[in-house]
Amino acid sequence: MPPNDYLLDDLNVFFDADEFGIEAVIGEATIEGILDDEYIEDLDIAGTRPVLICRTSDVAAVAQGASVTIGTVSYKVVVARPDGTGVTRLVLEEV
Question: Do the Cβ atoms of 68 and 74 come closer than 8 Å?
Answer without folding.
Answer: yes
